[in-house]
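tl;dr need the bound structure. longer version: we got a ligand (4'-deoxy-4'-aminopyridoxal-5'-phosphate) that a collaborator sent over and nobodys looked at where it sits. i said id run it. heres the input, straight from their email, havent touched it
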Amino acid sequence: VVYLDYNATAPLRPEALEATLDALRSVGNASSVHQAGRGAASRVDLARQRLARLLGCAPGELVFTSGATEANNLALRAVHSGGGGAIVTTVVEHPAVLEAARAITTGGRGRLIELPVNRDGAIELGPLEAACQRGPVSIVSAMLANNETGVLTDLTPVIKLTREAGALVHTDATQYVGRLPLDLSELDVDLLSLSAHKFGGPQGVGALFVRRGVPFPHRPLLLGGGQERGWRAGTLNVPGIAGLGAAAEAVRVRLHDEAARVAGLRDALEAGLTSRLPGCRINGIKSPRLPGVTSVTFPDIPADAVLAAMPDVAASDGSACASGAPSPSHVLLAMGLSREDADSTVRFSLGYATTEHDIERALDTVVRTVREVRRLMGTSAE
Ligand code: PMP
C-alpha cells in the first residue's frame, strides 16, 4: 500500500516506538516520590523539554493531554468565562474547535462568531475587526494549517486585532507542528494545540501550550489529582508522552530537510495529476500551504468511488475524522465548492517516509483509476 494519509495519522517514528516501549516496560507513576516514580517523572521531563525545544517555548508552558481534541476543548473551555464575551473562530476549523465552541456558547453563554474564508481558503478579517470593535471577545481561535487543504493561516493580523480587543489567541496547530518550523518566542499566541500522531508520535497523546501569564482555567475539563498544575488531572500517559517527546526530537533535527523534500514530492504529484487528468483542480493552490498536502477535485467522479477502486493507495475523501459522515466537507463548501465538487475531492497527504517511488506508483494508480471510473460512469472524456 502507498500510504498518503499523513493528515489522518503518520507512521510511528522508530525513535518514538523505542521510547514508548522503553516506558511501557518500566513501572512508575510520575506523581510517586519513590525511585520508580522518579523514573517515570524523568521520562515526562525529558519529553517536555524536547517538545519545548521543537516549539521554542518553556517546558513549564506545556500541558500534556490525550490529543488535540482535548487540547482544543480545554483551551476554549478554560478561557471562555461565559460572561457575555464572544468566541471568534473560523468556518474551516476542525470539529474539535467548532463543536466545542458551539457547545460552550449555547444557552446564553456568549456569542459565537465564525469567520468566513475566500475561495483560496484564506480567512476574511472584516468580521473579526467588527467583532473586536463591538466587543467583548474572550478568545479568538484560528488554525495554523487546515487539515483538508493544507492552507496556512497568516496569524499576524489575527493576533494584532485580538490583542487590541484584549482577548486571548488560540491556534490549532495540529497539522502544522512537525511539518513546518514554529517558534513560539516569535509567534505571539497564548494557547496552541497539537497531537503527537500527526508528526510520528503515538496516537492518543498531545499537548496544549499555555503561555506563562494566561490565567488559571476557568473550567478545566478534568478535575482530580491536580496533575499538570491543575490544568489536566489524571495519571500521566508516560509511554505516550515519552513517544511524543522522542518524535519531537527526531523531527526537530530534520524539519527543514523533510519539509523541502516532501514539498517536492507533493509538487510532482500535483504536476502529474493535472497534466495527465485534464479538468482536475487543486483546492487552495493560490494560498501558502503545508508541504505535504494536496486536495484534488476530479469533477463528476465521486471520491468514494475512486478510493474504493484503488485499495492500494491510502488517501482520504474529506477528513478521516469525518469519514462515514454523509455530509460533504464543510471546509470545501466554505471555499465555494459545489456539493458535487466537494464530494469529488480526494486529499493526498505525504510525509517523512514518503518516497519518489510511492509518488510514481500513486500517480499511475490514480490516473488509471480515475480514467476507468470516468469510462464506467460515462462522464465526459478528457
Ligand atoms: N485539529 C486538527 C486540525 C486535526 O487535523 C485533528 C486530527 N484530525 C485534530 C484537531 C484532532 O486530533 P486528535 O484526533 O489527535 O485529537
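gonna send this back to them w/ a short note. The domain at 2-8+255-377 is CATH 3.90.1150.10 (Aspartate Aminotransferase, domain 1).
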